[in-house]
Amino acid sequence: MARDKVPVMDHYTSPPTTLIPFASASDFSYSDARPSNTHLLPELPYSIRDHKKAIAIAWAITYANSSLLPLAVTYGLWFGTSLSKQVIFAIEAGVFGVASLFIFGKRTWLLLRKDGQLRPLGSKRGWLDYFQISYALGILVVTGETVAGTVANPPNVRLLSCPPASLLLLVSSQLLVFIIFSLFGLRTFFRVSSLPRGSPIRPAVYTIVEDVIAVDTGTGRVYREALNRRYEASSHFRRMLWQLNLFWAFGGFACAVIVLGIVLAPPVLDIVAYGIGWAVPFLWAIVWAFITIKWVQIELKKEKEAWGKDRQLA
Questions:
Q1: CA–CA separation, 96 vs 99, rounded Å?
Q2: pLDDT tens across 18-76, in order?
């Protein structure tokens, strides 16, 4: 297989593989593989096209809970009641916090189930995936900013405007770290979901997609194995994921820095800063997600066409 022209792709020239069944999750490693039928493009057991309605509903609920609800509660209480700002932001923090902790708790329970079908490949019972650990870190950051901003007298509205942009900065920074690791040929210092310690780095987008779809759609180990086969078999697929990693990393980092710069700027009124801080990052994410969906649809079509041509020449 020819080496890809994209620099961050140079580590991934391994042949297509099919995972060998193993007795338990702890027995698995990506070296336990054998060549598969190279004439067939490995299929993924979950298609966005087949679940458009469910995905749209999930995105709508996420956006409402993460942006519209906090804004509606805060502005409604701010202009419609005589409650102090401290009480208003305490209520908003409670609404947002309970929803976030419920999602985190549910996902943790799914990963810790005894059957282990949703856990990362090769991980032992009690291990969480990379996305869940990153989620926990995000909760800590948001909790810290929210508590510090709320207990201040008067409340620090600018600090309370920062959580969405801070989360975006946290995630985009991780995507950038994965890019830097790949450029310098570094390997993982610890297990990254299904990738054991010491593995060649893969794009963070790969890991996020693997974890979210495997756990949140219930496809579990079946999807994790299928995604690995597709990644190893198709250079076009690998290149697309690295390009998406760049797209989200630099776009997210730029959006977060700009939003933080605006909400923390003294000339901007507190009430305006709060609206910008809680609306813009999520609006940006919707636009980026829409572009990503269209982009992936185009690239997957190209991948199939290129795969067929390559096999005909072979």
A1: 5
A2: 333 333 333 344 434 333 455 678 888 876 666 566 666 666 666 666 667 778 888 88
d(CA 6, CA 182): 11
Rounded to a whole number of angstroms, the CA Rg of the chain reads 22
pLDDT < 50 regions, the chain: 1-36
Residues 6+ apart with CB under 8 A from 213: 46, 219, 223, 227
Residue 301: C-alpha distances to residues 175, 180, 217 (Å): 26, 29, 24
Which amino acid is residue 191, in one-letter code?
R
CA dihedral 113, 119, 124, 130 (to 10 degrees): -120
* Dihedral pair phi/psi, residue 192, rounded to 5°: -115, 90
- At 77 the pLDDT is 84
Give 184's contacts (C-beta < 8 A, 6+ positions apart): none
Cα–Cα distance, 274 to 263 (Å, whole number)? 7
Residue 61 burial class via C-beta count within 10 angstroms: exposed 0-12, middle 13-18, buried 19 and up: exposed
Other Cβ atoms closer than 10 A to 231: 21
Q: What is the pTM of this model?
A: 0.80
CA torsion 252→256→258→264, rounded to 10°? 180
Residues 212, 111 contacting (CB under 8 angstroms):
no
Two structure tokens written together for 183: 């450029």
Both structure tokens of 19: 């995972």
Positions of E strands within the chain: 18-19, 33-34
In the Cβ-directed half-sphere of 238, how many Cα atoms lie within 13 Å? 26
Burial of 294 (0-12, 13-18, 19+ CB in 10 A): exposed
Contacts of 99 (CB under 8 A, 6+ apart): 65
